[in-house]
Amino acid sequence: VTNTEEGLRDMTQLVATYPQGFKFWLGPTLPVINVCHPDIIRPVLNASAIIVRKDDIFFSFIKPWLGEGLLLSAGDKWSRHRRMLTPAFHFNILKPYVKIFNDTVSIMHAKWQRLASEGSACLDMFEHISLMTLDSLQKCVFSFDSHCQEKPSEYITAIVELSALIQKRGENILLYMDFLYYLTRDGQRFREACRLVHDFTDAVIQERRRTLPSQGLDDFLKAKAKTKTLDFIDVLLLSKDEDGKQLSDEDIRAEADNFMFAGHDSTASGLSWVLYNLARQPEYQERCRQEVQELLRDREPKEIEWDDLAQLPFLTMCIKESLRLHPPAPMISRRCTDIVLPDGRVIPKGVICLINILGTHHNPAVWPDPEVYDPSRFDPENVKEMSPLAFIPFSAGPRNCIGQTFAMTEMKVVLVLTLLRFRVLPDDTEPRRKVDMIMRAEGGLWLQVERLEA
Ligand code: HEM
Ligand SMILES: *[C@@H]1O[C@H](CO)[C@@H](O)[C@H](O)[C@H]1NC(C)=O
Ligand SMILES: *[C@@H]1O[C@H](CO)[C@@H](O)[C@H](O)[C@H]1NC(C)=O
């Protein structure tokens, strides 16, 4: 098993020995090609998005929840939807979300202030931050405020439960077969939680349709955009393909559910590990804080705006270096069509390719001293020298992460405000990494937070 700290170290060792990649067997008959070098990753990720099938055991577990959304769909459906959804992540749509991120992170900080009223507190970053990323997603996708950070919310609880159930199922091979799984208590819980989540999304879409005029939808939404933040549901209702056809309610539900799923744990993992890395390297933490204080020097209250986010070079380098060392999505997979490698060898059709993002980021043939946290790797001077595929936390090519600007924006806003209000320090025990679909820590990622005087 490669998902524990020891397993990950063994895997990194293999990568150092076979820096291009290696083959291993899943069970007695299923060959898997592990790729962990930019030269090999290029042809694999560049293979036409339409024929590439993802092949991940987890994905079959998630399908009842996510349906035919971007993550799991393929072929024409995927490419049509990808074109229709791309405008949803245009910076004009994302800009107003900075205010939402500011509000949701401030709710989390108010909790931290209470918990650290004695001066400091030891907190599980994953627990706090994933609740916060869910809160902001629910506001950005649905314009719905469930106050989930302050009191239990049925919908958010269901999403947290679905994610936990998928993770648990992945650990027990006896539960891989659907018909066995749905006989278990967990399987039934999974089904119930799925229904609850779907009902919520359906209700929002129905409600929105009711208030939409049957004609002049475009004008209506454009007018709305002037007075109010457009959420993703608005944008999905507005979007049309080349023939003027719109998305069905079912399609919209699937895509909204996909955003909620793909956006929360990944961003929470990214943020938790960046705080961990800055806790371990206080001098970098202090340099980020100074950069932020300098930028907001004359501003009272200390508020952050979209344009500020481009003025934080060092903080951005620290986030990237953390995404390198602790990529939130450590591995992705593809079932290949015939792929020709640079040396002429061919990965035959049907073979599973594991694109080992973590392995690539820890490959000593790609990154010297890969285990060292060193933000200067992302100094623009040094970036010029490096292959664009050496750093792929959001994957690359046609099926890369559609939410990456959203995620980088949220991470920056959260980090800026956190560093202004708190100092983070490591806990006594070193975390042990644990990988399922995302990079976690066994038993949570615990850090000390200390209030800073305003
Ligand atoms: C730090 C945060 C994030 C990381 C590291 C991340 C990483 C990734 C990666 C590696 C993929 C490729 C998956 C594969 O090929 O199997 C992906 C796809 C995707 N991501 Fe993200 N993601 C993040 C945040 C988000 C957010 C915030 C959203 C939405 C609001 C999002 C939505 C998606 C979607 C819809 C896809 C599927 C795209 C497609 O196949 O066309 N992600 N992400
Ligand atoms: C990617 O694929 C396209 C066509 O499928 C090809 O024209 C292009 O050269 C490829 N790019 C790389 C970097 O391999
Ligand atoms: C940011 O959040 C704080 C705390 O909730 C609030 O007082 C402030 O008005 C917010 N700023 C913006 C620009 O929304």
UniProtKB/TrEMBL annotation:
GO biological processes? arachidonate metabolic process; menaquinone catabolic process; phylloquinone catabolic process
Protein's cellular compartments: Endoplasmic reticulum membrane; Microsome membrane
- What are the entry keywords? Endoplasmic reticulum, Heme, Iron, Membrane, Metal-binding, Microsome, Monooxygenase, Oxidoreductase
Query: Which superkingdom is the protein from?
Result: Eukaryota
Q: Mostly located where?
A: endoplasmic reticulum
GO cellular-component terms in the record?
Answer: endoplasmic reticulum membrane
Gene Ontology molecular function terms on file: heme binding; iron ion binding; monooxygenase activity; oxidoreductase activity, acting on paired donors, with incorporation or reduction of molecular oxygen
In this chain, heme is annotated as bound at: 401
Q: Which cofactor does it need?
A: heme
Entries under Pfam families matching the protein: p450
Family stated for the protein in its record = Belongs to the cytochrome P450 family.
Name by which UniProt lists this protein: Cytochrome P450 family 4 subfamily F member 155
Q: Which gene encodes it?
A: CYP4F155
